[in-house]
Please model this.
Amino acid sequence: MTRRVAVVGGGSSGLACIKCCLDEGLQPVCFESSDDIGGLWRFKENPEADRASIYHSVIINTSKEMMCFSDFPIPAHYPNFMHNSLIMDYFRIYADHFQLSEHICFNTKVLQVKQRSDFSRSGQWDVETENKDGQQEKHIFDAVMICIGHHCHPHLPLHDFPALYWEGKPFDSLPLMAMLYNALYLSTRRGAWIRNRVGDSGLPTDMQLPRLLNYVRNLVPMSLFSGLVEKRLNKRFDHALYNLKPKHRLLSQHPTVNDELPNRILSGTVQVKPNIRRFLGSRVEFDDGSVVEDVDLVVFATGYRFSFPFLASHVVSVSENNATLYKYVFPPELERPTLAVIGLVQPLGAVMPIAEMQARWATRVFKGCIKLPSVASMLQDVRCKQEAMAERYVSSQRHNIQVDYITYMDEIAEHFLV
Model:
C-alpha cells in the first residue's frame, strides 16, 4: 500500500517535498493556507496575517547557479541574481514540469497534527484541516513534512519603546527608501559585516571557491579564518570608517549581502546611527546622545520568530527560537521517525538545495531505506550543535538556527552512504 505523506506549506520547501515524495513512490498531499504556491516569495500588496511577504523590489542574494533545484536548472536567460517575480516564475515552471500542483490543497489551513493512538506501532498521524469556507476535515497520514519556514511571526521589540505608536505596514528596501525620502537613518546596535553579490572578475561571490574556503576554515582556528575574511571585506570598504564595524566576528552572525549600502552612506542618502535610546513623539534619540527631529516612519528590521501551533509541544520542542531537531530535521525522541521539519535553517547560502536534500533524506527514512541513529546519539548531536552555537553566536540569539551551507550538506549526504 502506498504511504500517504502530509506536506504542510506550499513554498519552495513544500514543492521540493512533493517532488521527493513522488520520486520515492509516496503519495503526497500538500496543505497550503493561501491560494497559490511560493510562500513568502509571492509578493502581495497587502500581506496576510501571520504570513511573511517579501517587498516589491527584492532581488535574491544567492545566484541562480547556487539556488536552483538539482534536477531542474534555472533557465539560462534568467539573470544570475533574480528579482522575486522571476523566482516565482521558476517555482511555477518547476511545479508545472513535475505536475506538483495537482497534489496541493489550496486555501486549506492545518489546525492540528497529532499522533494516532497506535503511533508506537503504526507511526501514523491525525491531521485536521479547515478550508476557506470553514469546513473541517480529518485525515490519516503515514508521515508528515512541515515546511512553514522560520519567517512566521515578526519580532517587534515594542516593549523597549513604550511611547511608540505602532501601525504595521509593509515597506520596501532600504536603498529604495533612501531614494524616496529626504533623509534615512540606519540604526544598528551591533554593526554588520557587509558582503557584496559581485565578486572577483564580476562573478557571483557565492560561486567562487566555496568548498576551498570551507576546507581552509576547517584547517585553521576560527578566529584566524574570520580575521582573514574580515580583512578582505575591509579592503573593499573600511567598516569602521562607515560606522558599521561589528562587535562580533564574521561568522558569529549572518552577514548582510548588499552592493549598494556603502554607496548610499558615501553619498549621504543613508546615515548610520547607533542603537535607539527612546522615541519622543516624532523625535528619535540615539545612544550617542544625538537626536533626529520630525521622523515620519520607523521600520523594524528585527527578524522573525517561528512556531508550530498545530503541533503538541512534546513533539517538537521550541524554545527561544530554537527547535530541538536532529540535523535540524527530525525530532530525536519520537518513537517512529515519521515527522520531518524541512527548510528550518538560515544557511550561509541558498535554502532551496538544502530543503531538497533534507526532503530526499526524510522520504527515504519514511520508507525505511535509511535508518536514523539511536536516540542517545541524536540527542548528543543536538547538544553538540547547541553548545557550539551558544559559543559561536553568543552575540545574536535570534540567529541560532544559522548553519554553514557546505558543512551541513556534507553532513546530510553522509546518511545516503548506506
About this structure: The radius of gyration is 22 Å.
